[in-house]
Amino acid sequence: MSTYLCYISIQQDRPTRSSLEVLTRMRELARRDGVPLAACVLHPDAERFIEALKPYGVDRIYLVQHAALAQHLNAPVLAALEAVFQAAQPAVMAFPSTEAIKDVLGALAARVSAAALPDVASFEVTPTVTVTRPVMAARVLADTEAAAQPVLISVRAGAYHAQPAETATDPEVVAVPFDFDASVLRATLREVLTGATDQVDLSEADIIVAAGRGVRDEAGKQLVETLARELGAAVGASRAAIEAGLFPASLQIGQTGKVVSPTLYIAVGISGAIQHVAGMAGSKVIVAINKDPDAPIFNIATYGIVGDLYQILPLLIEEVRRIKAGS
């Protein structure tokens, strides 16, 4: 019988929100089509995450446990995913669209003779697999169909809502044999450096405060970071703010940066160039702050504030603090 399989990404010792979003969608399809729902975890101590997946209604969990997976290098991850695929033989395998998965999805598809549909905004199985993907800097949505199975899909964060099943399951646990020779590695991870503004992963953040060209100096940067801290949000930036030297390149959102889909996106001093919009158009609520009333960002904003960010942000910060103090 065909299986629908979902890859579970682990960050900060728990399944990522985007993984659970994809798992929820796969559960809907599996229950509708009457096929088993499986999940897979790749981690040196993968057994620790079984309990976290039970509320999501999985029928089977494939575990790959190996010390080589601690470094998140492409070679062991690719080999482990291939081992899981061969063990599960899924008709459809879905992933959260993370940087790590972008590195290996095409190679995995080639190894297992599957179609690869990356970075999709939504997908359906009918039984052919149809996906919707933003193209042309998110100005157009394109539908693509894979006429044959198996199919590998990576799904943008925020495309679906993570929701536990009505009834938890007691899934079958399958330990996938995996023997990886670390001597074949061409690279070794020596150290992970975390910057002060990297405390919340952009792709997993529920709230993002993003800075644009209008944030022109260190004072503006501090206002953005203070608002983000008060909201428990991640900090992002447009290419213009990155090139001004105020924010590290790892925080860039847009066509050449990260793609995000938070519940709340606060665009501070961002004009709304299509290259930036391509990376955040999937946000649920967009609040734009810009002194130019004709800025394109207002065309996609849920709420707009026309004014000087250096005057508006202190008021927002004060109001957030007042609300938090009263709660």
TrEMBL record:
- Signal peptide residue numbers: none
Does the record bear Flavoprotein in its keywords?
Answer: yes
The record's annotation in Pfam families points to:
ETF (PF01012), ETF_alpha (PF00766)
Question: Which residue range or ranges hold the Electron transfer flavoprotein alpha/beta-subunit N-terminal domain?
Answer: 4-189
Any idea which positions bind FAD?
213, 238-239, 252-256, 269-276, 290
Listed GO biological process terms = fatty acid beta-oxidation using acyl-CoA dehydrogenase
Q: In terms of domain of life, where is this protein from? A: Bacteria
| GO MF, any single term | flavin adenine dinucleotide binding
- Which Gene3D superfamilies does the record match to this protein? HUPs, TPP-binding domain
Read off the SUPFAM superfamilies from this record. Answer: Adenine nucleotide alpha hydrolases-like, DHS-like NAD/FAD-binding domain
Q: Which cofactor does it need?
A: FAD
Q: How is the cofactor bound?
A: Binds 1 FAD per dimer.
Q: Which family does it belong to?
A: Belongs to the ETF alpha-subunit/FixB family.
Q: What does this protein do?
A: The electron transfer flavoprotein serves as a specific electron acceptor for other dehydrogenases. It transfers the electrons to the main respiratory chain via ETF-ubiquinone oxidoreductase (ETF dehydrogenase).
Q: State the protein's name.
A: Electron transfer flavoprotein subunit alpha
